[in-house]
Amino acid sequence: MVKNEDVFKKIISHCKEYGFVYPSSEIYDGLAAVYDYGPNGVELKNNIRDYWWRSMVQQHENIVGLDAAIFMHPTVWKASGHVDAFKDPLIDNKDSKKRYRADILIEDHITKLEEKTNKEIEKAKKRFGDKFDEKMFRETNPKVAETQKKIDDIAKRFADLINNTDLAGLRLLIEELQIACPVSGSRNWTDVRQFNMMFSTQMGSLIDEASSVFLRPETAQGIFLNYINVQKTSRKKLPFGIAQIGKAFRNEIVARQFIFRMREFEQMEMEFFVKPGEEADWYEYWKDQRMKWHLALGIHAEKFRLHDHDKLAHYAKAGADIEYKFPFGFKEVEGIHSRTDFDLSAHQKFSGKKLQYYDPDTKESYVPYVVETSIGLDRMFLAILANSYEEETLDDGSKRVVLRIPPLVAPVKVTILPLVKKDGLPEKARKIMDNVKNYFMCQYDEKDAIGRRYRRQDAIGTPYCITIDHQTLKDNTVTIRERDSMKQDRIDIEKISGIVREKIGR
Ligand code: GAP
Questions:
Q1: From the CB of 220, is ligand 1 less than 6 Å away?
Q2: What's 260's domain CATH number?
Q3: Angstrom distance (rounded) from CA 425 to CA 422
Q4: pLDDT tens digits for 22-33?
Q5: What is the pTM of this model?
Q6: I want to staple 412 with a disulfide (CB 3.0 to 4.6 A). Which of 60, 77, 336, 462 is the partner?
Q7: Number of helical (H) and strand (E) elements in the chain, helices listed first
Q8: How far is CA 357 from CA 139, 371, 450, in A?
């Protein structure tokens, strides 16, 4: 069996080889936790972005879009609490001189224990076959039950320490769990210290306090600052939402796991403004809606789970993550938060401007409450790739790497392939290409044997290949090959766009 770390390494090198993701500034040996998207990567990213935007803005009459600037007045981050509270607990190993996030060392320890349990479950599944009852096994197998108790105890203690910002307690827990530095192997740790994750830079020519600005660590604040503008100009009544997609920046100390944790990344956020008192129902509504969105894309349902936050962000009264099972374990892809009136009230106080909503039904004015959905575009990209990557042995013993990307978001939808580079087939194929490219992202490929060309398309996840052969010249039909089944059908040239559109669901 191929180990998960090996699969992950293969995905990373596949991403580079096939133009999905490159390390940033590679010729200068790269820049840690910063990446560039190549020709196929940018298409996939655009398609995920569109899928989110259409479902959020186009499908909801009460949600509108916004594109706020990255730079904002420095007081925004004082009011939002990010200057004081957007901090990570860091710990250094004195031998390797490597710096780690204390919370992540503990989370990784918990993940290792979970993996131990999962291995026992997999073994038992194989032993008992169809009769296997996972719930009963978890409860009755002494080894699994004991590990689960350990996990629960650590998770509970960890949540209390984080919520109380108990840095000494975090260090003690790391020592008690005998967590060693992955580089030096030693347990020679420093104290835990807090470190602010916002990047700052200078605006204008004067180097003084007032000209320091931050690169936004979340896009949400741009929405809060514009909520009155948007509400008035688009004449929205509560409840209504504002959606935004854009870059965010965090000085992440743990730079690893490829594009999972980056210093420059993209968020797709929606802030939903509701009447105070209605936030709990809307919070449940959006948790449910967002999970449905993920499942509708066709990713394996068992790879997603909802995880209520043990540690709440400084602005949240309730929070949950939608987690995807990456090759390195279940990790957050999206957060749903009940942010109360925390942000709007703080901006009202710091700016001195009224941010109240006048409710025409009750004739009252109040500061709305906010329920937020916030998904990382790059993490969704990684989840889709991890879910899609497959090495398959075919019936004839040959191998292929195929990306089973959901057709709706696949970078290239159709590739046009003349069977041979002669006999008028390229000319016919070009004509078809000129028509089909009006509707979909297409590629044209006439180089190498047809089998190799199919493999190239499988490797970038192209759902449909159209092959033009000698019969095409006689009866205007082509073959359409489906990526996953590799099944080929003969269809009329006129029907190509309609069939592809129906198959990709757009
Ligand atoms: N406005 C709320 C907010 O920013 P968050 O849970 O800190 O909440 C939301 O971030 C999402 O942004 C996460 O679920 C994740 O997908 C993405 N994200 C956060 N930090 C990231 C990073 N360093 N690299 C890539 N994506 C990140």
A1: yes
A2: 3.30.930.10
A3: 6
A4: 999 999 999 999
A5: 0.88
A6: 462
A7: 16, 23
A8: 51, 16, 63
